[in-house]
Amino acid sequence: MTIQRTLSIIKPDATSRNIIGKIIDRFESNGLKVVAGKLIHMDQDKAAGFYAEHDGKPFFANLVEYMTSAPVFVQVLEGENAILKNRDLMGATNPSEAESGTIRADFAETIDANAVHGSDSFDSAKREIDYFFSEKEILTFPAKNLLTFFKNHQLINIKLEEVFLNLFHNRGFYRHL
Ligand code: CMP
To answer: How far is the CA of 171 from the centre of ligand 1 (A)?
Structure first.
């Protein structure tokens, strides 16, 4: 089981049409968890920097103009194989080619106004998450029956059962059980 994090952007066409919730529902209903999120209005530099790999392509100027035209919702999604799962849920870049049941087939309008962006690889997920979020803004949810905490920047999970057994053992309580 590979738990990954990926960056997702709900684009101006979708935020303007009040369908942020409907799109997030697709992620949550399919096992992805929102572990960070915010509504932002990007300026030209922020959008151009984010899409730097497309600089020089014929659609670059339109893309930057479009992404700065209204607020977008940026979020970090976490879950099993989150990077690929997010891309499967989004569907093809061009909504006219997206499989039915995908977010772009159901909610997108054109290749520019295509509702969502999602990281396409492990490396781009890391770069894109860091582009919008600090480590402190990405939160961890305690798992059931697990004591979860960060130590030396590492996520540590200990079964609660083991914590109690250790406590009883160390204090000699186990003799009275
Ligand atoms: P996104 O996944 O955000 O990545 C780059 C964006 O550029 C893409 O979605 C589209 O919205 C936009 N775009 C516009 N024209 C093209 C094109 N011909 N090929 C790829 N992306 C395009």
So the answer is: 62
* Average pLDDT score over residue span 30-52: 98
- In this structure, the strands spanning 3-10 and 146-151 are unpaired
Other CB atoms within 10 A of residue 149 CB: 12
Q: For the segment 116-151, what is each residue's pLDDT rounded down to a tens digit?
A: 999 999 999 999 999 999 999 999 988 777 777 655
Nearest alpha carbon, ligand 1 atom 10:
112
Sheet holding 33-40, edge to edge: 33-40, 72-80, 3-10, 116-118
For ligand 1, is residue 117 a contact (CB within 6 Å)?
Answer: yes
93 in contact with ligand 1, CB cutoff 6 A: yes
Q: Ligand 1 in contact with 114 (CB < 6 A)?
A: yes
- Residue 156 class from Cβ within 10 Å (0-12 exposed, 13-18 middle, 19+ buried)? exposed
Mean pLDDT of 33-37: 98
> Where is pLDDT greater, at 15 or 153?
15
Three-state SS for 7?
strand
Span from the CA of 7 to the centroid of ligand 1 (angstroms) = 16
Identify whether 117 is a catalytic site residue.
yes
Ligand 1 near 47 CB (within 6 A): no
- Res 160 pLDDT > 90: no
